[in-house]
Amino acid sequence: MKVIILTLPEFVEGEARRIEAFLRQGIASSVHLRKPTATFSELEALVRAIPADLHSRLVVHDHFDLATQYGLQGVHLNRRNPLPPAGWQGSVSRSCHSLAEVAEWKGRCTYVSLSPIFDSISKQGYPSAFTPEVLGQARVEGIIDHRVLALGGVTFRRLPLVEAMGFGGAMILGDAWR
Q: CB under 8 Å to 130, separation ≥6 — which residues?
């Protein structure tokens, strides 16, 4: 099962070292650098602080030029950045918040996330949007499969449940940074 860690939106002390530990210790297969208010220079400084041999396991949500410049794994599409850069050949992932979005984007991306699966840990008042029955039916219909990752309230303890629900992996934010 693929486990991806998302960074907190704000920069934290020792962040590059923690990202390195997540990757070197096998806690995560990759790390998404999600810093929606960061400047290019700020995000570049974080990328540069992470050892170069791990750059191929990093995905950026903004400042896609960094992906090409530093040989990063991929780019993550979202409302701010709805399309990959022209000619991009690396991984492309996308945030989805409905099963219709998953059905629309799954075939056009390397993988997509679906959220919120559980009540969010990092966003107060952001409850699960899907019942177990709805998720089970989506699995039967082939909407949820190995290319769909659960996001939202996912903890390391919930990984077996996420796998049993038919997801190909999970994206973890709040639980990773506690």
A: 99, 114, 117, 138
